[in-house]
């Protein structure tokens, strides 16, 4: 049986390795390009009807309603919509290829405290998932590590690169911390087959709080380490936290319930960290407090059930509205292990159906995400001087029925929109004679 399983895994890996060899990064922009007659969604709430956008050398040069006369390539987008490139705020893209094949997973290191780990060095630009994201207008992803208590740093990548060095858009901008769970749950299946957790709820919470104190002790020791004028030995783990204390890096705290988020706020106060809540399913309950403490939130999977059994079943859809009203900076994400991020725009579209406007929903996956990731000076909206990261869609990008992406540009380059899904579609259309 082991031999059969191994053979299946090797076959899957070999199939993945053989696919999409002819889909490669685009060459740099060489001529001025102007998109005309389009409905342009700037990303900051502004919509320009029958507008134009001109870009050259990878930068946006002009945007408005009356296109100036000039040379270069003109793309007539009459009846179409133009958007900024969408951004996945957290993702394991390029670190996981097939969830069920262990050999294609590289997102976790041994140990509890790994601030010195950099996710980017394991990022695989040949992942077949990347093409499926571009086809849905997603041009950027924040590649995060996983595992342990402090997992390491994440890097924002652009999704059209030969290797991980080429892919870097902003390196090591966030440190990731997994908050110990203060929401005790029973062991799955009542412990059958895997050994039951016999600890009481109080014991589990007590152990979680002890873990929190251990994390604080780690950061206190790191802070004391930096106060020393010289070190007899270099501590790589402490050294890796220096950017946090200098506010050159943000602390992304992965947690959901109110008690955990209150502890995250306490970290911000004690250590002066720029804290971002990742997950935040109950963030709506303390939206005013998050606003007061300048804490941003990345709402994780929106197409999901609520955290608590007595919450409204549609609460995940409405959370963005509560944060919007309170003035909290937030982004919407897609962390579904099956869609692998492809439903990002549709998660935002669902939020738009439950209280926020469509332009606010778009901002949550473009400009807001860029602000949280510290790249809003160069992307996230269609403004003069920013990178030409542009998506052209036949219809509303937030609507699953009309979101048909016809072209994308990353820093002015026009990458291929071919992907594994389209190739399989063509393969089986051919096999069964479907036209």
TrEMBL record:
Annotated GO MF terms: hydrolase activity, acting on carbon-nitrogen (but not peptide) bonds
Residues spanning the signal sequence: 1-19
Domain Amidohydrolase-related: 336-413
SUPFAM superfamilies: Composite domain of metallo-dependent hydrolases, Metallo-dependent hydrolases
Classification via InterPro entries: Amidohydro-rel, Metal-dep_hydrolase_composite, Metal_Hydrolase, Metallo-dep_Hydrolase
Record carries keyword Oxidoreductase: no
Keywords assigned: Hydrolase, Signal
Keyword set includes ATP-binding: no
Protein name: Amidohydrolase
């Amino acid at each position: 049986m082991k031999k059969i399983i191994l053979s299946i895994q090797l076959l899957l890996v070999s199939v993945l390795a053989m696919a999409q060899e002819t889909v490669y990064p685009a060459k740099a922009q060489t001529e001025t390009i102007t998109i005309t007659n389009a409905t342009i969604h700037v990303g900051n709430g502004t919509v320009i009807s029958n507008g134009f956008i001109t870009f050259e050398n990878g930068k946006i040069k002009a945007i408005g309603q009356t296109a100036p006369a000039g040379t270069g390539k003109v793309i007539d987008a009459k009846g179409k919509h133009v958007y900024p490139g969408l951004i996945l705020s957290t993702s394991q893209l390029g670190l996981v290829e097939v969830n069920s094949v262990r050999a294609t997973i590289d997102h976790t290191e041994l140990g509890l405290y790994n601030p010195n780990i950099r996710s980017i060095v394991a990022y695989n630009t040949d992942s077949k998932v990347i093409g499926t994201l571009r086809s849905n207008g997603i041009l950027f992803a924040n590649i995060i590590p996983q595992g342990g208590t402090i997992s390491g740093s994440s890097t924002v990548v652009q999704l059209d690169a030969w290797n991980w060095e080429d892919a870097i858009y902003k390196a090591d901008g966030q440190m990731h911390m997994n908050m110990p769970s203060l929401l005790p749950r029973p062991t799955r299946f009542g412990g059958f087959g895997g050994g039951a957790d016999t600890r009481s709820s109080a014991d589990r919470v007590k152990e979680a709080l002890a873990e929190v104190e251990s994390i604080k002790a780690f950061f206190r020791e790191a802070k004391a380490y930096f106060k020393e004028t010289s070190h007899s030995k270099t501590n790589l783990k402490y050294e890796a936290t220096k950017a946090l204390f200098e506010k050159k890096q943000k602390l992304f705290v992965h947690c959901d319930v109110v008690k955990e988020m209150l502890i995250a706020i306490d970290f911000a106060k004690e250590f002066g960290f720029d804290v971002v809540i990742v997950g935040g399913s109950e963030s709506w309950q303390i939206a005013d407090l998050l606003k007061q403490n300048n804490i941003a939130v990345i709402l994780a999977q929106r197409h999901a059930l609520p955290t608590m059994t007595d919450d409204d079943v549609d609460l995940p859809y409405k959370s963005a509205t509560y944060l919007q009203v309170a003035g909290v900076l937030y982004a919407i994400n897609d962390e579904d292990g099956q869609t692998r991020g492809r439903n990002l725009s549709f998660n935002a579209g669902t939020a738009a159906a439950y209280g926020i406007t469509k332009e606010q929903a778009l901002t949550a996956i473009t400009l807001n995400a860029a602000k949280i990731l510290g790249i809003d000076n160069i992307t996230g909206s269609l403004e003069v001087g920013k990178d030409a990261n542009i998506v052209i869609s036949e219809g509303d990008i937030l609507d699953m029925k009309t979101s048909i992406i016809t072209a994308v540009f990353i820093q002015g380059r026009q990458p291929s929109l071919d992907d594994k899904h389209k190739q399989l579609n063509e393969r089986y259309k051919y096999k069964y004679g479907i036209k």
